[in-house]
Each structure stands twice: as structure tokens, then as C-alpha cells.
Specification:
With 99 residues, this protein is α+β, with helices and mostly antiparallel strands. It has helices at residues 17-27, 61-65, 76-84; strands at residues 3-8, 37-42, 47-52, 71-75, 90-92. A hairpin with a 4-residue loop joins strand 2 (37-42) and strand 3 (47-52). The radius of gyration is 13 Å and the shape is globular.
């Protein structure tokens, strides 16, 4: 069954390991500017939210290395349910993988 990435902003600590792992996988070097994922930080609200580019190929390296499990794969039906019940900070990533 196909999967979609889900981001749980409530669990993200802002460590940015996902950015480093993605850039290493994509380019062979640790360069967060080349990453398909960015961790956006709002200092006033004290929250971090990973944002995934549509260029992401769903390799799953960010999922494997997310220590807090803020990024994970779920099935399409589960993603639809989560989107319907969505609260701020927990939502399916803004793209769909065809493959």
C-alpha cells in the first residue's frame, strides 16, 4: 500500500537532524540548503514545524533519523482521516507520492 508523510509539529524539537540527513542523502554532503526538508522555528510560540518540499522523493531517511518520531509514513486512508481530524501542528505533508 502507498504511504504519505505525516508531520507532527507537537513532537518536533527543532534539532534539524532531518535537514542534515536529507542533504547528505541527496548531495553527499551536509548542507541544509540542499535539503528537501526545512525546520521552521517560531520563537514567539516556541514551536518547530518541519516543512517538506515537493521535490522530496519519499526516501524515508528523515523518518528513520527523527528521534522524536515527528515525521512518519502512514497509509492514504489514515492520512485522509488525520486530515479530516487535523489540528494545528499535525497534518499530512503537502504533496503526494505517485509510485
Amino acid at each position: 500500500m502507498d504511504k504519505v508523510l505525516i508531520i507532527d509539529g507537537d513532537r518536533c524539537t527543532g534539532c534539524k537532524v532531518c535537514e542534515l540527513i536529507c542533504s547528505m542523502h541527496k548531495t553527499g554532503e551536509y548542507n541544509t540548503q540542499q535539503s528537501c526538508i526545512r525546520v521552521l522555528r517560531n520563537m514567539e510560540l516556541d514551536v518547530s514545524v518541519p516543512a517538506i518540499s515537493t521535490a522530496c522523493d519519499n526516501c524515508g531517511k528523515c523518518v528513520d533519523w527523527c528521534f522524536e518520531k515527528a515525521i512518519r509514513f502512514v497509509s492514504y486512508p489514515e492520512a485522509a482521516i488525520l486530515r479530516k481530524q487535523a489540528k494545528i501542528g499535525c497534518f499530512p505533508a503537502p504533496f503526494v507520492s505517485y509510485g
